[in-house]
Amino acid sequence: MLEKVPIKKEYLLVAAMIVLLLASYRFAFKNTIEAWQTHSALVAKLNQSSDLSYQPQYMERKINNLNKTIELYKADTTEFRNNIINTISFIAEKQSVKLTEVPVQDLSYHTDHFIIEKLGFEGDYFALVKVANILQTTPNIGVIRSETLKSVEVRTAVDKTKKLMLEMYLVITK
After folding, report:
1. What does the alpha-carbon distance between residue 128 and residue 167 come to, in Å, rounded to a whole number?
2. Distance between CA 83 and CA 96 in Å, rounded?
3. 3-state secondary structure the chain
4. Per-residue pLDDT for 14 more than 80?
5. 57-61, 108-112, 160-164: range with lowest mean pLDDT
6. Domain boundaries, the chain
7. Quick one: pLDDT at residue 81?
C-alpha cells in the first residue's frame, strides 16, 4: 500500500522526525519545563517568606527573649555595694556560710556594659554548693560568671586547719 503512494522517502523521514519530536515534547520535555517553572515559583516564595522583615511576630519574640536575658544580668549598680551584698550575705548566713571577701571595686573588672564583682565565701562543700545554687536563681543580683572551690590550709602556732573557700564572680549590666 505504501508503494502506491507517490511520496518521497525523504519527506516521510522529515514527517517521522516531526512526529517523534512532538511525542518527545509531550512526554518528556513538557513535564521537565513545568517542573522547572514550579521550582522557580517555589524558590521565589521561599526567598520572600524567609525575609525576617515580613515576620513581625518573630522579631517580637526575639526582642522579648533578649530582654529576658538582659534582665538576668541587671542589677542597680549604685546600690550593689549595699542592698545586693546584704541580700547575698543573708542567703549565705541562712546556709551557715560566711561571706569572707568583698574586695574594693577593681576598675579592671569594669567594661563599657558590664561590671564584674568578686565575692568570697567560706563553709563546707554542701553549704557552698547550696549558696551558689540559690544565688544563681535569685533575681536582680546579676549572673554568676564563674565559681572556684579552693581548699586553703590555715596554719596557726598550735595547729593547722583546712578551710573550703568559694570564689565567685558576678556579672552585672550597667
Report:
1. 10
2. 20
3. CCCCCCCCHHHHHHHHHHHHHHHHHHHHHHHHHHHHHHHHHHHHHHHHHCCHHHCHHHHHHHHHHHHHHHHHHECCCCCHHHHHHHHHHHHHHHCCCEEEECCCCCHHHECCCEEEEEEEEECCHHHHHHHHHHHHHCCCCCEEEEEEEEEEEEECCCCEEEEEEEEEEEEEEC
4. yes
5. 108-112
6. 9-69, 75-173
7. 60
Specify the CATH number of the domain 75-173: 3.30.70.60
Say if CB 107 and CB 68 are below 8 A apart. no
Q: Is the pTM of this model over 0.70?
A: no
> 69-118: per-residue pLDDT in tens?
877 766 655 556 677 788 888 899 998 899 888 766 666 666 777 778 88
Question: pLDDT at position 166, please?
Answer: 92
Cβ pair 157, 128 in contact under 8 A: no
